[in-house]
Amino acid sequence: MPYEILIPRQVERQIAKIPREFATRILDDLEGFADGLDYKRYDVRKVVDSPKTAPRYRMRSGNYRVLFFILHNRMVIEVISIRRKKTGMDY
After folding, report:
1. Which of 47, 28, 34 is nearest to 5 (CA)?
2. Residue 76: predicted pLDDT
3. For residue range 16-64, what is the model confidence (pLDDT) as tens digits?
């Protein structure tokens, strides 16, 4: 059974600022991950300094990073933010 994806309004605004082809890829990756929770295929890892009671996770999708919570008891993935990865070329 797939997990439900919750995207708050502030994250929707972040998605609106991303070029369409990247936004589509990010949302497709999120949906694919929610269907099977395949951590390796979608490059999902626990954020290092996140609390053990409510760990945050990150997913890489191209040059973007998606931060989210996985609420297993409710079968929900709650997206916190979607940001562009900072590289040495960004000033």
Report:
1. 34
2. 95
3. 999 999 999 999 999 999 999 999 999 999 999 999 888 999 999 989 9
Q: Are residues 30 and 77 in contact, defined by beta-carbon separation less than 8 angstroms? A: yes
Strand ranges for the chain from DSSP E:
4-6, 44-46, 56-61, 64-71, 76-84
Overall domain count for the chain: 1
Q: What's the domain range around 47?
A: 4-84
Residues 6+ apart with CB under 8 A from 18: 26, 64, 82, 84
DSSP state of 18: S
* CATH number (domain holding residue 74): 3.30.2310.20
Kindly state whether residue 91 falls inside one of the protein's structural domains: no
Contact 38, 81 (CB under 8 A): no
